[in-house]
């Protein structure tokens, strides 16, 4: 999933919608991807336990260079969720859906 997020440049889609994060170690886009990966791991960790979940994961490969488990904390994740709420998610999910469709179309054209 992390690879697919990179293929569609999900972090940039989130950045264009939400802007920069006050939390300097991670962008909102990278925090969003982190939340996706956590949920797909079917662990359902609460926000304050994310750093524990990611302590043994290769974050530099999964998310971005320089990311450490301690950067993934409840404060940063909460700010990301607040920004998503303030922005509204309907148009954001539309943009993500369009990026996925375009990416899949380009893969389909390459394999033809």
Provide a quick synopsis of the model.
With 112 residues, this protein is mostly helical. It has 7 helices and no strands.
How does this model look, in words?
The protein has 112 residues and is mainly α. It has one domain. Helices cover 65% and strands 0% of the residues. It is built from seven helices and no strands. The longest helix has 23 residues, at 89-111. The protein is globular and about 45 Å long. The protein starts with a helix and ends with a helix. The model has no long low-confidence stretch (mean pLDDT 87).
Number of strands: 0
Major β-sheet annotation: none
Q: How much helical structure, as a percent, in the residues?
A: 55-70%
- The end-to-end span amounts to 24 Å
Beta strand %:
under 5%
What is the molecular shape? globular
Indicate how many domains the architecture comprises: 1
What is the alpha-carbon Rg in Å? Answer: 14 Å
Order of helical and strand elements: HHHHHHH
